[in-house]
Design goal:
By secondary structure, this protein is an alpha/beta fold. It has three domains: 267 residues, Rossmann fold (3-Layer(aba) Sandwich); 120 residues, no CATH class; 49 residues. The chain is 47% helix and 15% strand. The chain has 18 helices and 15 strands. Strand 9, helix 8 and strand 10 form a beta-alpha-beta unit. The radius of gyration is 27 Å and the shape is elongated. It binds one RNA strand of 74 nucleotides through strand 3, helix 1, strand 9, helix 8 and strand 12.
Length: 499
RNA sequence: GGCGGCAUGGCCAAGCGGUAAGGCAGAGGAUUGCAAAUCCUUUAUCCCCAGUUCGAAUCUGGGUGCCGCCUCCA
């Protein structure tokens, strides 16, 4: 295989080669746990989930570390607002985070370190930096001295001498006075009255934001890792500072590849908490947008480009997903009818497929799919191949629906089965899992119960038989108004589905 | 002011020098009492100008517009 990735460090498309054969170490910047995640977070973690799934599909042993920043001004602010504690706020939001990510089908990281649990490593690294003369303390604060690191700015392409003129009044004056250089950043902050704090050689305080990632990478993965991930908004200063800290402390390159995802935009502007233009994952799911719709929406764009969020584009993704999903569900719903082996599990389907010889047309699709992902994760192309693969399957699903008995020759049926297995297998690399339709199943706490629906369907059938279509349509309409859609099948049976 | 990115049909979005993927929407047709679903067919010369080239959406130069980062941020 030859996976090519755009390395933000070199700004070039590079062929991926791991440090250790067959193993990949990945660190991904996680969230500050002070609130629910929004669509922007979803994009980041969905995209990196695909990278991980792809590497796994190629047989790599992937160690994926993602942190939780569980100490921060915003968490403290939230705690004070809710009259709770920092720990309560972060614990709650960690739980919420897991719930959202699990729903979106994002694989759990191998380990998820938290800032408050890595204090030893953090303190050690700061001390190391002090010893090397790259850090200095002022009244209980400790700062990293950017002038002591000649390569500072190499990730973001910033030149210290040109930048310092343009602080533009954005730097806190008090802090600015303590710093030797405007770009120096806090490694350790002295505690303010009443704030949670931790002991250190510099007094009670807490770590600066950037240092936790450096300490965690070292602790969890070592001095140099294969891939470092994050949103493009983290390039400066966060990742720049991480590089400075780690590389000065360890005298080793921090990461071979740096990958950054583009932002989710709203009306051309970045979705963010501070602008207030965000939509949480939770809110979208609550509205009935399916998790896989969100995945499809996000993966239809290239991960490095900005992606505009609109109701229309979510709606388009939703309909697209329904169609793709009907192909994905075919073997789960109709295996009996098609005389296909019963699907035991996704894993089984995928391993079964790998053991088979597949026809040339299908292996070509598989190759195109892989080529697309290897070309800097071109999920957009990958998805177009899924749609192509799914087309004949949807057609078949429709034939079954209409009970057209002729299923064609055995050869053809065999090809369709393999096609379906391939579709399931490739979709799985994008994390797109079939969502079985909830036909006829009552959800929790429905206002209109199943008995009434069935009764109405019977009435409508009687009306249809007596050719009283006005009445039949009236019943359809009444049910529709209550969110129940009727689907007439060829054999005279009427299915229903809650919308 | 510095650094970086983007501009493709009604909308979203691929494309990385060889004559415009895919999704949604629209149109026509098949099927259908209606509805839904499905199938087939169909819709662009790529922000502007100049250049390089046999050939450019793709490269170069110059515009115009939009965005990100430089403060917390996926």
């Amino acid at each position: 295989m030859s996976l090519k990735l755009t390395n933000s460090f070199t700004k070039k498309l590079e062929t991926f080669k791991s440090l250790k054969p067959g193993e990949v170490s990945i660190y991904c910047c996680g969230v500050t746990v002070y609130d629910l995640c929004h669509l922007g977070h979803a994009r980041s973690y969905i995209v990196w989930d695909v990278l991980r799934r792809y590497l796994m599909s190629q047989g790599y042993q992937v160690t994926f570390i993602q942190n939780f920043t569980d100490i921060d001004d915003k968490i403290l602010a939230k705690a004070s607002k809710e009259s709770s504690t920092m720990t309560q706020v972060s614990e709650k939001n960690i739980k919420e985070f897991h719930q959202d990510m699990d729903t979106l089908g994002i694989l759990r990281p191998s380990r998820m370190p938290r800032a408050t649990r890595c204090l030893d490593g953090i303190r050690e690294m700061i001390q190391k930096l002090e010893k090397k003369g790259a850090a200095y303390s002022v009244e209980g604060d400790v700062y990293f001295s950017v002038m002591r690191y000649s390569e500072y700015g190499k990730l973001s392409g910033r030149d210290l001498s040109e930048q310092q003129l343009n602080a533009d009044g954005r730097i806190d004056k008090e802090e600015g006075a303590r710093k030797q250089h405007p770009f120096d950043f806090a490694l350790w902050k002295t505690a303010k009255d009443g704030e949670p704090s931790f002991s250190s050689p510099w007094g009670q305080g807490r770590p600066g934001w950037h240092i936790e990632c450096s300490a965690m990478v070292l602790q969890e993965l070592g001095e140099t890792i294969d891939i470092h991930l994050g949103g493009s908004d983290l390039i400066f200063p966060h990742h720049e500072n991480e590089i400075a800290q780690s590389e000065v402390a360890n005298d080793k390159k921090l990461a071979t590849y740096w990958l950054h995802n583009g932002m989710v935009n709203v009306g051309g502007q970045k979705m963010s908490k501070s602008l207030g233009n965000f939509t949480t994952i939770r809110a979208l799911l609550k509205e009935g947008v399916s998790p896989m719709t969100l995945r499809l929406f996000i993966l239809q764009a290239h991960y490095r480009k900005p992606l505009d969020f609109t109701r229309e584009s979510i709606e388009a993704a939703s309909i697209g997903w329904q169609r793709l999903n009907s192909a994905l569900c075919l073997g789960l719903i109709s295996h009996h009818r098609l005389k296909w082996p019963k699907n035991v599990s996704h894993e089984k389907t995928i391993s079964d497929l790998n053991a088979r010889v597949i026809p040339e047309t299908l292996s070509k699709s598989r190759q195109q799919f892989t080529d697309a992902l290897e070309d800097d994760l071109n999920t957009s192309i990958a998805i177009s191949i899924l749609f192509d693969l799914g087309r004949p399957l949807r057609s078949l699903a429709n034939q079954i629906e209409r009970d057209i008995s002729d299923l064609g020759e055995e050869e053809k049926n065999k090809e369709l089965h393999l096609r379906w297995m391939l579709l399931v297998s490739l979709a799985n690399i994008l994390g797109l899992q079939p969502e079985l339709p909830q036909v006829g199943e009552s959800d929790q706490g429905q206002k209109y119960n199943e008995y009434e629906i069935i009764k109405a369907i019977k009435e409508r059938k009687a009306a249809k038989l007596s050719r009283n279509f006005t009445k039949a349509d009236k019943i359809r309409k009444e049910l529709k108004d209550k969110g129940i859609e009727l689907i007439d099948k060829k054999d005279g049976v009427t299915d229903w589905i809650r919308k």
